[in-house]
Amino acid sequence: MATGLTELSARLKKYTAEEIVLASDNFSWQLRSESVGIWSSAYKGYIQNDTVAIKFLNSSEERQFESRVKSLSLIRHPHLLAMMGFCSELKCFVYEYIEDSCSLLKVVKQNLLWPIRIRIARDICSALCYIKTAREGPIAPDYLNASNILIDSNRNAKVNVVMKRCHKVYYNPDFGWDVKTFGYVILSLLTGIPGNCVSYFYVRWCVGLPHTLDKTAGQWPMDLAEKLMNLCRRCVDCNPRDDFRKKYIMVVIVKEMNEITEMANGIVGGHDGIVAGGRAVRRDQDSDIPRQFYCPIYKEVMSNPYVAADGFSYELQGIEKWLQSHDTSPMTNLKLKDKVLTPNGTLKLLIRDWCRERSIPYPGL
User: Fold this and answer.
1) Domain limits at 281?
2) Is residue 133 one of the residues assigned to a domain?
3) N or C: lower Cβ tally within 10 Å for the chain?
4) Nearest to 69 by CA among 116, 8, 112, 23
5) TM segments (predicted)?
6) What are the backbone angles phi and psi of residue 85, rounded to the nearest 5°?
C-alpha cells in the first residue's frame, strides 16, 4: 500500500503514526469530535501551525483506504472540505479544520435568513457540479445529507467528500441519487426541517404551499421561494436510472441555482449589499444606519447585542470569541474587570424596529 501511495506525496502530506498521535494528544477525549457516515472517530488536532481534523475509517471500510486517498487527492474546490494528507499506518485522513463551524443539520434549526439559505444551496450545488463533472470521473459524496455539510462562521458551505458507497436511505449505485439528495437539502433550507427528517412523500405534499416555509428565515420573496421549490421537486422526482445518466445534467441544475442566487442578490442589493447577523441590508441604506447598531469587532449591524464590562455593546459571537483569548477591551485595550456579558435588549429592539420600518428581514419578525 505504501508503494501505491508514494506518487501522491506531491499533492498530499503523508503523516507518520507518531505525528498523528502527537497531533491528537494521544487521541485525547477532549479533542474528539462528532463523526458520521463511514468515520469511526474524528479528532481535532494540531500539526505545526495548522489546526486539522483527523478522521478514522470504520473497520469495514479500511480495505478501500488506498483507493479513497487516490480519488480525494485529485479534487480541489472552495466548497469541498480540503484533504491535507493521510496516514497509511493508522488508516486515517487529515482534513482542514473549519473553525466555529457546525453541520447544516444544526444550522437549519437557527434563525438563518433566506438570502443566506439560498447562498448555502448555491455553494452545495457548485460543489456537486464539480465532482459530477470532474475530469478524473465523477466522485460521489459519501452519505450526502445535512450532517456532512459544514457551515463556517461566514455562512459558507463545505461538503465533506469521500467516495461513492452504499449507506442508509439516501444511497443507490446509480449516478443521480446525489441529485435527489440535493433536493432534500433544498427542502431542509426552505422549511427548517432537519435533512434527516424529510421524506419523498412530504416533498410531494408541501412543494408549492407557502405555509411550509420556515418563518425564522424572514419574509421569503414568493417568486424566489417558488423557483427554489420547483427545483427541489425536480431533483427529488428525478429517476436516477433514466434521467441522470448524463453527468452534465448537473450543469443545468447549477445554472438554475445561480440564476436564483442572482435574483436574491438583486433583491437585497447584490454585491453592493451588506449581510450582518444573517440579515441583508441594501447599500443605499448604509448611510442611514445609526453607528451604535454596528458591532465594533465585526463592523456589521448586530443581531444579538451584548454589553461587556467596558460598557460597549458587541455581537455576542464576536465578543465571546474575543474573550477566549483576551482579557482586555476591544475598544479601549484596557483590562476588563470581568468577562460577564449582559444582553442589550433595548438596543436589539431598536435595531429590530429600524429593520421593520425599512422592510429588511430580521430574525424573529
Assistant:
1) 274-357
2) yes
3) N
4) 8
5) none
6) 180, -170
